[in-house]
Amino acid sequence: MPLTSRRRDFLKAGTAFTACSLLSASAKAISPNGKLRTAHIGVGGKGAANLKSVASHDHVEVAALCDVDTQRLATASRGYTDAETFRDYRELLDRMADRIDAVVVSTPDHTHAPATMMAMNLGKPVYCEKPLTHDIYEARRLRLVSEKKSIVTQMGIQRHSAATSRRVVAMLRSGVIGKITRVFTWSFKNWGYDGAKLQGRHEAPETLDWNLWLGSAKLRPYHPDVYHPRNWRKLIDFGTGTLGDMGVHIFDTPYGALELTAPKWAKTTCRTPTGIGHPEQNVVEYEFSGTKHTTATLHWTWLDGAHAPPRAEDLQLPTGAVIPKQGSLCIGEAGSLLLPHVAREQLFPADRFRNYQPPTVAGDDHYHQWVNACLGMGETSADFSYGGPLTEALLLGVVANRFPGRKLAWDPKKLQITNLPEANKLIRRTYRKDFQVENL
Ligand SMILES: NC(=O)c1ccc[n+]([C@@H]2O[C@H](COP(=O)([O-])OP(=O)(O)OC[C@H]3O[C@@H](n4cnc5c(N)ncnc54)[C@H](O)[C@@H]3O)[C@@H](O)[C@H]2O)c1
What we know:
Elements: H1 3-12, H2 19-25, E1 36-41, H3 46-55, E2 60-66, H4 70-77, E3 84-86, H5 89-95, E4 102-105, H6 112-121, E5 126-129, H7 136-148, E6 153-156, H8 163-174, E7 180-187, H9 210-214, H10 241-245, H11 247-257, E8 263-269, E9 283-289, E10 294-304, H12 312-315, E11 326-332, E12 335-340, E13 346-348, H13 366-374, H14 384-400, E14 407-411, E15 416-417
Parallel strand pairs: 1-2, 1-4, 2-3, 4-5, 5-6, 7-10
Antiparallel strand pairs: 7-11, 8-9, 8-14, 9-10, 11-12, 12-13, 14-15
This protein binds nicotinamide-adenine-dinucleotide (NAD).
């Protein structure tokens, strides 16, 4: 049994130990000074922020840093001079397997699954950025393997642990607005690319190992500006567009609150596919089977780019209601709940809820929650058993944007689109040989 689940069982048995006694009891996998030794894969961009957040826990020792860009690696390592540095995560995991306890993955989306699975194959707990994976198949495999091995995991949807999200979950489940009939979700952001095919041959910067950056993806020439850093999320081979990127944060609270599972179908309205980028604007519709918090079926709409925010009349909000640029609206049989992205929720109609007292709910630090769980204290709130199905649901909409106007009927057990066989090619991609990983 992996050490982490042994520790969890230990706690469940009701033993009242302090963090320190747990750490010292956990002898083998924790460093001699009683700290969780972390390895960080991808340390620029969000990876730099994740490094700081994880390292701010008193019981963390940053043991290894990895980035394919030496400039970013050098910047990150300035704050952690004792950490060993690597350009290739495979080498890190191979060489440091017995000197690290847990792994943080903050690379572009197409590298999430290979790096995470390799770490889990070694039995290491993983914090992996959102969306969990690039492909639906990968999300399913990460979930199944994490469950089989009882590995402590967390997906990087940090607002999931915040007080606002937890309060809204409690409100929706309490039935304050009755059973939910429709959900709207949206973001004005444009992580799409409708431009032309990329031309010309360009040298990658000296600091960047382009082959390692491509990783499991097919080889192709480097091009400035469109891939590294951050713009890869616009391109179909590396990112998941605005839906995968922002949608995962915005779907999270209503999806989790309503205890939804797999969608029955998804349909995207967008421009004709170009084979290069995700569409710059989408409208994605889903239907979910009902749960105890919803009517018999639930219709869910996502809008992004210039399609967001939705029209006020579609949201059935009173005149004058301010519609945020990003957020969600749950329409229930007895009212509506508007949740702007990163702001407080509002109930409508305002008169009906004037005297309503929302539940008092405490927030939690998403990163420290994962570290604590790795150390046997408590559990994570967005493990792969949650993050996997949420990511699968989102990614069905991403697949649908390659077949605009077609309703893709989904069989989650078989992991198949049942009415459009050619779409199934997009459920799982083939990795380059050197980046194939056991269990994927
Ligand atoms: N949770 C959030 O709020 C949030 C916010 C931003 C980004 N993200 C997620 O974080 C991830 C990274 O996004 P970003 O905006 O920081 O991208 P980025 O391109 O700015 O940074 C990615 C970093 O990973 C490095 N990298 C790329 N391939 C690598 C590999 N194979 N091995 C090691 N390092 C590698 C890059 O050099 C770079 O330093 C994405 O999954 C994104 O969705 C999450």
